[in-house]
Design a protein that fits this description.
Layout: H1 5-14, E1 19-23, H2 32-40, H3 52-56, E2 67-74, E3 90-93, H4 102-117, E4 126-130, H5 137-143, E5 148-149, E6 155-156, E7 164-171, H6 193-197, H7 215-220, H8 227-232, E8 236-238, H9 242-245, E9 269-271, H10 272-277, H11 280-287, H12 296-311, H13 317-320, H14 329-345
Helix pairs in contact: 1-4, 12-14
The chain binds cobalamin and iron/sulfur cluster (2 copies).
């Protein structure tokens, strides 16, 4: 028995998935050129599959797949916390890193959706992916006709904007022939605001960011952070939203219908001295369920040190000083930079 797209959509909305569509599990040959140039220009990140064929061929993940269901969930809330109320010595988290881990939320909702959909279909198989799968999520969403690309590289939904996450499900379920979508790319209104506001000047080529200088990348990447990035990223602890905050497609974006995405104001900020003091065990206990938890204590401590330097407040020097003797070079360098910056703040 073939599934119906109407039923899928109905179940998706019931599970707070804001939009959904289904595509065939075909090879995305059109992506090959972009991915090859990414390799050639050394723009491959540690967070993505390096074998190009695995990124474009869904059958390598699930040979028996008949469909890919692509769904979007929004984490947009009308009133983000007022940063002027951020307590002293707290760093900031990007919206997608606040509150509960979005990977888990999307997984929960997609699993519920699939359980309801396959209720009467014995033997149906499926695999859910959010962010960490080999395929290119934004590309799948575009192919499924769910929105368009922004100059800032983000995928934008016409009503919900770009503060959305993308999940997909490879499944043996089949839909009626007319239910499958395959759309070509549409584009943003190209106002250029994102390009102008990016502190790292990472949007040089429209629709493709230079991820090697993007602050979001630098904050997640292991190792020594370069001085310019430490300065540009201010008190950011994880993720950067600047090129999305300025985007007109987000001005009137609808709010998320998903209560699990609601977070308390204090979950938008991290106490910097506390991050420096927690043990590894305590870090895992406290932050395991947050979407930045997987990057671990060391990266977050490095980010906390440079953030303290950027507070410009010499009261924090006692928190930074002990790390000047740290065995780990990335941590020591961040502490040295912070102390240097704080000494200039005093002048
Ligand atoms: C690696 C990675 C990163 C890296 C590099 C991102 C990059 N743009 O290169 C870093 C760490 C910098 C990063 C940052 C962020 N990320 Co990220 N990231 C990924 C990951 C794991 C892989 C991305 C990838 O494959 N890139 C390869 C290139 C080829 O694909 P792409 O970046 O998706 O680009 C597409 C378009 O730009 C377009 N395109 C490219 N060239 C051209 C040219 C033209 C002319 C046109 C029209 C289109 C076009 O085609 C590409 C494929 O369709 C995906 C999850 C996944 N598995 O896909 C999440 C993902 C892209 N990230 C996501 C998020 C939320 C973020 C951040 C917003 C987090 C934050 N607040 O800091 C930022 C956004 C930064 C930005 N402006 O792009 C979401 C994006 C949701 C959305 N609305 O777009 C994803 C899809 C995860 C998810 N499942 O929801 N990310
Ligand atoms: S800020 Fe302007 S140019 Fe950038 S993605 Fe949004 S609409 Fe497009
Ligand atoms: S996420 Fe931040 S650093 Fe990266 S492109 Fe957007 S504004 Fe620039």
């Amino acid at each position: 028995m073939k599934c119906s797209i109407e039923k899928l959509r109905q179940l998706a909305f019931a599970n707070n998935i804001i939009d959904i569509a289904v595509i065939k599990p075909e090879r995305s040959v059109e992506l090959k050129k972009i991915l090859v140039s990414r390799h050639q220009n050394k723009r491959l990140t540690d967070f993505e599959e390096s074998i190009i064929e695995k990124r474009i061929n869904p059958k390598l993940i699930m040979p028996e797949a008949k469909s890919i269901i692509v769904g979007l969930m929004s984490y947009h809330m009308d009133k983000p916390p007022d940063n002027s109320k951020r307590p002293q010595f707290y760093g900031t988290l990007a919206r997608c890193a606040r509150g509960k881990d979005y990977h888990r939320i999307v997984h929960i909702r997609m699993k519920e959706l699939m359980e309801s959909l396959t209720h009467s279909q014995s033997g149906a198989e499926w695999k859910i992916f959010v962010d960490t799968g080999p395929l290119v999520d934004r590309h799948l969403a575009a192919k499924a006709g769910l929105g368009f690309f922004g100059r800032n590289n983000c995928f934008i939904h016409p009503q919900y904007g770009s503060f959305i996450v993308i999940g997909y499900i490879l499944t043996t379920l089949e839909f009626k022939e007319n239910d499958y979508v395959s759309k070509t790319y549409d584009k943003c209104s190209e106002c250029g605001e994102c390009q102008q506001s990016c502190p790292a000047k990472a949007i040089n080529t429209p629709f493709q960011i230079d991820n090697q200088v993007c602050l979001s990348h630098a904050l997640q990447q292991k190792g020594i952070m370069d001085k310019e990035t430490m300065l540009q990223s201010g008190v950011m602890m994880y993720g950067c939203d600047i090129c999305q905050d300025v985007c007109p497609h987000n001005y009137f974006a609808r709010n998320t219908p998903e209560p699990l995405f609601h977070y308390k104001d204090e979950e938008a900020w991290l106490n910097l001295p506390e991050i420096l003091q927690v043990s590894n065990r305590e870090f895992n206990r406290r932050y395991r369920s947050a979407s930045f938890g997987w990057r671990g204590r060391r990266i977050m401590q490095r980010n906390a040190l440079k953030s303290l330097g950027n507070t410009g407040n010499t009261m924090v020097t006692d928190h930074v000083k002990p790390f000047l003797e740290d065995q780990r070079e990335d941590i020591r360098k961040a502490a040295e930079w912070a102390m240097d910056r704080l000494s200039k703040a005093d002048e």
